[in-house]
Structures are given as C-alpha cells and as structure tokens.
Write a structure and sequence with these properties.
With 672 residues, the chain is of the alpha/beta class. It has 27 helices and 28 strands. Strands 1, 2, 3, 4, 6, 7, 8, 9 and 10 form a nine-stranded mixed β-sheet that branches. An eight-stranded parallel beta barrel has the order 17-20-21-22-25-26-27-28, surrounded by eight helices. The protein has a five-stranded parallel β-sheet with strand order 14-13-12-15-16, with helices on both faces. The two termini are 45 Å apart. The structure holds sulfopyruvate and magnesium ion (MG). Residues 432-434, 444, 471, 473 line the site of magnesium ion.
C-alpha cells in the first residue's frame, strides 16, 4: 500500500505563513509541522512508500522531507502547472507511480490523531473519514451517504450528507477506477476538468464501494487559515498531553508485549506500572528478574514515557494518582480471576472520565513455550534452592504447606485463592517427617530412612517449582548430618530444619507424654557448625528448631539456645509449642526480636492455629509452616469413602464424595 499526499496547492489563505514554504510545512506544535506529523505517523504505522505531489517551493519541500530522515521512500512529483490546476491534475502527473496499488490518500493540510489513521488502515473496505458529530460545514467537503456507502463527495451537497475529510483508504479496485477516471478527465482537453476537485471524477463512478469511517469527535481537520491553525494546535496540545496506563508483571518481553506497547503509545504518553515482586508471586510465579530489573527493562523501551511501581494487582492506587486518559489491556481479563480487577478499573476510570481500551490478547504458542521454559528453569536445583532466602527477603513473611507426594506437591504448587482483587498462594513446601512417615503408615520416629525421604523430595521436585523446606528431624549423628546437608543442597532443597533432640525422637506434639531428650547446647551447636561447614553454596539454609517449650524447659532455656544456635551458624530459628494459646510463642518472638532483628523466625502453628499470618508478621515471624493439613484432611476423606463402599456394598453412594473421573484424568497437567 502506498500513501499519496497532495502538496501542490498554494495555501494562499494562510497569509505570511506560506510565504517561504508550502502550507504542509506550517508548524503545528513546537516539534512538528503538518507534514512531519503525517509522515511520522505513516512510518510508525509501517507504511514505507509515499508519493507526494509538489508545486510551489518544490525544492524546499524535498529537502525538508529528506532532513526528517524517516524510514520512508518518497517519490516527489511536481505538478508543473500547480498554479493553474487543482490536485486532480497533480494526481494525473503522478499516475505512473500510482497504478495497481491500494492507496492511503490525504491532503497535505490534514491533521488527524493516531487512532484515526489506525482505523483507516485497519478498514477492510475502502473508506473515507467523515464526522457525524460535526455540523455540516458551509464550504468544506461533505459526503452523501446512502446504503452505508459514500455516494458523492463535494462542497455542494447538503442533503443526506455528513462532514467529510479528505483522508481515504482505497483498495486497489476502487482506486484503479478513480485513477482511470482522473486520467480521462485530465486528457479530455477540457480545462474545467483539471481545475475541479478529483472527487468530481469519483462521483461519476457508480460501481465504487467506499464506506464512511466515522471519526466522531476525534481530531481530523484541514488547516486552511490561521484560525484553523490555532484551533488544531490547541487540540493537539490536549491530545499530546493524554496519558495511557498499562501494567506489566512480565520478566520476559516478547513481540506480543511490544505490539501492545506500540498500540498503547499511539493513544498518548505511556505510563507503565511494573507489578511488585510480591504481587507477581501472589498469582503467577516467582519473577525471574526482581522488580528493579524489570523496571529498568521497561524504562529502556522506546515509547515508554514513565515507569512506576504498582504495588498490588489492584490498579486503583495508580489510577487515582495518575488519572490516565486510557488504560490499555488485553481482552483476556474479561472473565476469570482478573474480572474483579477489570471491574474496579472500569469503575475508577468512570469516576473521572477515563477510558478502557482492550486489544485482542496475543495467544501465541511461542509465548506459552517461553513461559513453560521459565517454569522449567525454576525447578532446576540451582535456581530453586536460593529462592527461599530471596522470598523471605522480598516478602518479610512467607508461608509453606506440607507436601508428601507428587500430588500434594501439585496442590501446594498450584492452589491460588483470589480474594479482594488480590491473589494468594503458598510460597514454599514443607516436607514433614510426620506426613512422610504417615503416608507410609509408619510412626514419626526417624524410622523412614533418608533414602526413602529423598525419594519423596524427588517425586515432589519433579512436578513443582516452589522452594522446599525439609524436616530433617534431629539431623541424626553429626557425621551423618554433613552428608544429608550435601545431598539436600545438591537436590535443590532450600532449607533443612533440625530439632535439638537426641536419642529416639518422637513427634513434638506428644510433648512430655512420651520420653524425649533434648540435645545439649554444645552438641547441637557442633552439629550446626559441621552442617554449615559441609554446605557448598551460600543459598542453603540450616534452621535450628528449639524444643524447650515443648519439653517444658522454660523461656530462658529457649532463648539461650536460640542465641547459641544462631552464633553457631544457624540461618534461622524455629520455635515450637504445643499449646493452643499462642502466648509463649509471642513472648519468645518478642524477647528474641529485642536482641536479634535479622535472623528469620519460623513457626508451625498446628496447635496455636487461631493466629493469623498478619499477627505473626507483626510479631517479627518470617516463615509460617502449615505442617500437616493436607494429610489430616485427605485421610478422613479417604476413610469415609472406604466406609461408604463397605456400608452399601457398592460404589454409587461413594461417588458423591469423589472427584468426577473426567476431572481426575485431567488433574495432572501435561506441561509441568
Ligand atoms: C512435622 O511436621 O513432622 C513436624 C512438625 O516436625 S510437628 O509435627 O509439629 O512436630
Ligand atoms: Mg517432624
């Protein structure tokens, strides 16, 4: 497709403004002339071939166009009798460059906004811009419309007419008809046929098929005199001060994003909101690049005017702060979890007169592959291992849920709850000794050997990407523990928690009902030191778990141990309690934090389960582990199903409590 720009006219109504150059070189803003704006917009839209008719100041115009250095190939054709003919004759002069092609035809004094050109270019049919919101102009073009088609164009039509602007897209067939008629006119020998509007020739063509494209109240106006210039310049100032807002969570910019950015920036100055790491984690996955790097990435994309942080999935804060004229988004959020976010956006926009613009979401297989690759990377040991530390540093408080099999791992990995316009999911997985043993029908007494426990880790790792916290029981003999550390680290586990017990370990929730012995401070410190020495990377964490409150040894003992274990190298401290009342956990946190504001604190609120994560966070806790809930909820459900079958001697009654068969076969995604 070629653009045809008509610049042969004298522009005498502009007065002194056209005394040294053609009208199209009139400045309409501090940075642009009518022509530079037209050419830049055409180049931005991907047009490469331009035919420009010239007349007065021909050489000034040619060197001006060249000085713009736009990626356009411009063919200049001078109408030698520009002062005695109309543009119909200029088109005739350029006919050899205009055959057998579709054209975008515009007068050289026409100023229009980006979206007008976008709509013209996107039109599947030949079209002419009209405006149903403007009053019929006395002297300018009007188009007579019938049957949804432009029938006639001229200044003399008032019936069934709308204001029209000389900006056309003409498909090859329609253009060839018009061009042929222009040639006939200009070769007729009748001077009147070279001084009339080219539209005279168009009006004679019965078989043309041109639809009106209504620009409504968008800018699309000719500049004929200084008054027009003042009006259009003011409109442009308003248009150019418009802002557009888009939010991005991505850490990989692909062509789909670039295409969307290109479209968005045509609406105004583009403000990009970069979603915080925490918000990205909440509904998607751990970002490959942290916020600061993602922000820098967008700051360096052409066409992005400003980059700001968006702290949550909700746009409200930023929309209220920046009041953008437009919000641009893919149409994929009209349904699903993002619908509430979209609803909020539309209501905030409505409150100040902003507008939502949605473009079709780019569903390209290669983008999904990129995402799959990123997820696959996240599961690799060296990438997964360090993410626990990063998540704690980033979020302050993280949560983990137990997993003891591939399936429970998938639940921990994929469960997301959308709430109040935000999303929540677990940050990590806890491989509990209790649940791993229970799944094997064994007591939680370090009976399930390490090889078997590693097998569980492996099953979970194969289908997940989230960081893993491993319940290392007592850690065993120090001589064995160093090997455990190396193996876990190599596998990609992020943290092992070992408890300060010795001898036959029993589950802490038995408390003092069973005989349990606490390790001496010095022995346990020795184990921690040996473990820290054995690890190869800085990522891996050893957490010391203090059983003093469980074994009723008092707060003083718990604190003494906490500081000793920390000084021996423990990367985190877990304090445990089997009381329902959280008072002793809170007291420990307060006393510990009074002396240590850095070392992460871990809790397992199985007994003190009324405390919310927000309350833990306020008390300086960093990791909350939900240690056994999937096992404890799954087991009674299975037992109930078994009882139903035994009761009814068949499976029908049991079906009501079962997942449908069609769902279970789809439960495991193929792409993990
Ligand atoms: C586990 O889940 O195995 C634990 C936590 O060690 S607790 O059961 O509370 O001791
Ligand atoms: Mg345990």
């Amino acid at each position: 497709m070629k653009a045809l720009i008509l610049n042969s006219g004298l522009g005498s109504r502009m007065g002194v403004l056209t005394s040294e150059h053609p009208k199209c070189m009139t400045e309409i803003s501090a940075r642009e002339t009518i022509l530079s704006r037209q050419l830049r917009m055409l180049a931005d839209a991907g047009i490469t071939d331009v035919v420009m008719t010239t007349g007065a100041f021909d050489s000034v115009l040619v060197s001006y166009c060249n000085s713009l250095e736009l990626p356009l190939h411009i063919t200049f054709v001078k109408n030698p009798v520009y002062d005695r003919t109309n543009y119909i004759y200029s088109i005739y002069c350029a006919r050899e460059y205009l055959r057998d092609t579709a054209v975008i035809l515009m007068h050289g004094d026409l100023v229009f906004e980006n979206t007008v050109l976008d709509d013209v270019l996107a039109s599947a049919q030949s079209c002419m811009t009209v405006s149903t919101s403007l009053e019929l102009p006395e002297k300018d073009f009007k188009a007579v419309i019938a049957d949804g088609r432009v029938q006639k164009v001229g200044i003399e039509f008032f019936n069934d007419a709308v204001a029209a602007q000389p900006l056309y897209k003409l498909l090859e067939a329609d253009w060839n008809l018009w061009l042929a008629r222009i040639i006939t006119y200009c070769e007729s020998g009748d001077a009147a046929k070279t001084t009339c509007y080219a539209e005279h020739a168009l009006n004679e063509i019965a078989e043309k098929d041109i639809v009106p494209l209504d620009v409504a109240d968008r800018l699309c106006a000719e500049i004929d005199n200084p008054a027009d210039l003042a009006v259009v310049s003011a409109r442009l100032r308003e248009i150019e001060s418009r802002t557009v807002y888009m939010c991005f969570s991505t850490d990989m910019i692909h062509s789909g994003h670039i295409a969307l950015i290109k479209k968005a920036k045509r609406l105004g100055r583009l403000i990009v909101g970069v979603l915080s790491d925490e918000a990205v984690c909440s509904y998607k996955r751990f970002p490959l690049l942290p916020f600061a790097e993602r922000k820098a990435m967008f700051e360096n994309i052409a066409g992005v005017w400003k980059v700001v942080a968006q702290k949550s999935l909700s746009y409200r804060e930023n929309l209220e702060a920046y009041q953008p004229d437009y919000v641009v988004h893919g149409d994929d959020w009209q349904t699903g979890f993002q619908k509430v976010i979209r609803d909020e956006v539309t209501s905030v926009l409505a409150s100040y007169g902003g507008q939502l613009v949605e473009y079709p979401y780019a569903k390209d297989k290669k983008y999904q592959e990129l995402e799959n690759r990123a997820r696959a990377d996240m599961s690799m040991p060296h990438i997964r291992r360090g993410r626990l530390r990063k998540a704690i540093a980033m979020k302050g408080l993280i949560t983990a849920i137990e997993a003891h099999s591939g399936l429970t791992g998938l639940i921990a990995e994929k469960t997301v709850v959308f709430q109040d316009g935000g999303a929540r999911q677990f940050d990590a997985m806890w491989i509990s000794s209790l649940c791993d043993s229970t799944a094997k029908g064994k007591p939680d007494i370090e009976l399930v050997d390490m090889t078997s426990r590693y097998r569980t880790i492996d099953d979970i790792m194969e289908v997940t990407t989230k960081p893993i916290i491993f319940d290392g029981d007592t850690g065993g003999l120090t001589e064995h523990f160093v090997y455990t550390v190396r193996t876990l680290e190599r596998m990609g586990v992020s943290m092992v928690i070992i408890e300060d017990k010795t001898g036959l370990k029993k589950n802490s929730l038995f408390g003092t009902e069973v005989a349990q012995t606490q390790a001496s401070v010095s022995d346990f410190c020795e184990k921690i030191r040996a473990g820290k020495k054995a690890q190869k990377t800085a990522d891996f964490m050893i957490c010391a778990r203090i059983e003093s409150l469980i074994l009723e040894q008092g707060m003083e003992d718990a604190l003494t141990r906490a500081f000793a274990f920390r000084d021996a190298g423990a990367d985190a401290i877990m304090i445990h309690s089997r009381r329902q009342d959280p008072a002793e956990i809170f007291a420990f946190a307060e006393l510990f934090r009074a002396q240590d504001t850095e070392t992460p604190l871990v809790v397992v609120p199985t007994s003190f389960n009324t405390v919310t994560e927000e309350e833990f966070r306020a008390r300086g806790v960093n990791v909350v582990i939900y240690a056994n809930q999937l096992t404890r909820s799954g087991f009674p459900a299975m037992q109930h199903a078994a009882e139903l079958i035994l009761t009814y001697h068949r499976a029908r009654e049991c079906d009501a409590v079962c997942m449908p068969f069609k769902d279970i076969i789809r439960l495991i995604p193929e792409d993990i």
